[in-house]
Amino acid sequence: MKKSIRFCKSVVAAYLLATAPVLAQDADVDGMLAELANPDTTNWMQLERRIRTEWQRSGSASMDLLLQRGIDAMEAQDWKLAVEHFTALTDHAPDFAEGWTNRATAFFQLGMYGPALEDIGRALSLNPDHFDALAGLAVILEEVGMREDALEAWRMVAAINPHRPETKAALDRLEREFGGQTL
Q1: What is the b/e burial string over 57-73, where b = at least 16 CB atoms within 10 angstroms of the residue's CB?
Q2: CA torsion angle 173 177 179 183 (round to 10)
Q3: Dihedral (C-alpha) 8, 119, 167, 40: value to the nearest 10 degrees?
Q4: Helix, strand or coil for residue 117?
Q5: What pLDDT does 3 receive?
């Protein structure tokens, strides 16, 4: 467990030190992220969908097919098959953050938090603005009892995407627990 806690802290620290994504994002995505970060934005659900659609474009029909097969397996709750598809995707497209993010989700569903955290770390090194990967990190940190680190991860999610009700609920719950202190 201590090794797992050190790893969790390493993932959080690596994210906090990241100042720019390894791969440059499209200017459209940057603009959409800026709009999404605005707490007054009313079309946030549409923005989320458009951002995710852009993030899911690998530039390769074969990789897009592997991604879709993995997503289909997750929708069927066949987590092992999803891991297989996403593993093939990450093997063939290691610089494609969506493969890592989605495989992390499948690993989490299988109760494999260590591999999930490793994949989240990889996804965030490729795309530090990936609010879904950050939310996954926050959920796992909270699940393993690292509630202060989870609060910090939820705050990072909210800085990018302040609109999701589950983000607001997690922040409210954890900030009450820690008395609103800055960590």
Answers
A1: ebeeeebbebbebbbeb
A2: -90
A3: 120
A4: helix
A5: 54
Encoded tokens for 58? 């690998």
Contact in structure between 55 and 133 (CB atoms under 8 Å): no
- Using alpha carbons only, what angle is made at residue 46 by residues 56 and 73, rounded to the nearest 5 degrees? 40
d(CA 170, CA 95): 30
Gap between the Cα atoms of 78 and 41, Å rounded: 36
Return d(Cα 107, Cα 93) in angstroms, integer: 19
* Torsion over CA: 171, 175, 181, 183 (sign): negative
Q: Give the Cα separation of 87 and 108 in Å (integer).
A: 14
**Helix (H), strand (E) counts: the chain:** 10, 0
Read off the pLDDT of residues 159-177 as tens digits, 9 standing for 90 and up. 999 999 999 999 999 999 8
Reported as a single tens digit per residue, the pLDDT across 31-62 is 999 999 999 999 999 999 999 999 999 999 99
> Which H/E stretch holds residue 85?
helix 79-92
Residues 83 and 118 sit within 8 Å (Cβ to Cβ): no
Residue 182 clears pLDDT 80, i.e. is over it = no
What are the residue ranges spanned by the domains of the chain?
A: 57-113
Q: Which of 145, 152, 107, 106 is nearest to 11 (CA)?
A: 152
Measured over the CA atoms of residue 119, residue 114, residue 71 and residue 88, the dihedral's sign is positive
